[in-house]
Amino acid sequence: MSGMENxxxxxxxxxxxxxxxGPGEPLVMEEILVDPPQKMEVRIxxxxxxxxxxxxxxxxxxxxxQRAYPRIFGHEASGIVESVGExxxxxxxxxxxxxxxNGECGECLYCKREGxxxxxxxxxNPMKKVMVSDGESRFxxxxxxxxxxxxxxxxxxxxxxxxxxxxxxxxxxTFPLQKMTxxxxxxxxxxxxxxxxxxVKAGSSVAVFGLGAxxxxxxAGARARGASKIIGVDINPAKFAKARALGITECVNPDELxxxxxxxxxxxxxxxxxxxxxxxxxxxALREAFLSxxxxxxxxxxxxxxxxxxxxxxxxxxxxxxxxxxxxxFGGFKGKTQIPRFAEECMHGAVNLDEFITHxxxxxxxxxxxxxxKEGKSLRCLMHL
Length: 385
Hints:
- The chain is an alpha/beta fold.
- The protein has 2 domains: 2-184 and 352-384, Medium-chain alcohol dehydrogenases, catalytic domain (Quinone Oxidoreductase, Chain A, domain 1, Alpha-Beta Complex), CATH 3.90.180.10; 190-328, Rossmann fold.
- It has helices at residues 2-8, 53-60, 177-180, 186-197, 213-224, 240-245, 261-269, 283-291, 335-347, 366-374, and strands at 13-19, 28-34, 41-50, 76-84, 96-99, 139-141, 147-148, 160-164, 168-170, 205-209, 229-233, 250-252, 275-278, 299-302, 324-327, 357-362, 380-384.
- Strands 3, 4, 5, 8, 9, 16 and 17 form a 7-stranded mixed β-sheet that branches. Strands 12-11-10-13-14-15 form a 6-stranded parallel β-sheet, with helices on both faces.
- Strand 16 (357-362), helix 10 and strand 17 form a beta-alpha-beta unit.
- Helix 4 (186-197) packs across helix 5.
- The model is unreliable at 1-5 (pLDDT under 50).
């Protein structure tokens, strides 16, 4: 890295990026200009990136209020620090890092408080499209110098990106960066929901609605905590083999049932599960997840992204039966202070990260990777830059 740092630090870098020009349009591999990092920013050479369902829904333009083009999507990645801006003290050129969409400044009211991983200025914000320090983008098209918008504090579908230092986590350089990519979002979000948000207990029962990467990360987290029964719910039975490998003990396909999914889960558990997790972004699934929990203490954790205007499918009186419902962002992890330890636990076998990488492609084939996820054929397709 040292040669690259000396030659590029403080300069504009020309590189390739997969640019979105409109909702649902194929990403275009463009030559772009990436400005140097400004105060409290980090410029990263991205080595690996992958696609999450949040990227997919944003690419489709499902929420019109979040549309902004041209834009560089992507929020799961790993790479090496190319240079740092003024004031950055906890990272230096050559460090191995992952960007995180839900940052931690360490100074605000939320960061200083235990029990929450919100951050006033650098928390997840799908509306944000420029940098905090000056309201400008660090990306421009090479030909016309047109600004290109940022996405989810990260923008990883590019060979170089600029990220606020609050949204960059340094990881042990002996850990494989391929696997660390998964901790940027999916695995951290799912495992953390089981460990931090729900605090799943040994011997408990769990239902996971939606068996994508996040749902299976929940299952892996619940298995690591010693849950005795983990029921996976999905309408795509092709996912069941992988689900069982990651900790699901029983699979339920609602389309093949004569009763509602929650009734089948109640039957299987003799009253309902202790914890349910909604990972599908479906109000129907959320309703079923809530109904599938045990009266008196059942907890439902919401992880799915719901871009539409519809509200929770609950009657207020249903909460009088002792059940609870809560949301979880980034698995409840405070990114900069807790993810390095989580990475260490994964490397020591708490979670098998290899199980989540189902495909690998070169960065230039990013549209193929999107199609794999869209068709439900991949958990994570790792792209090499």
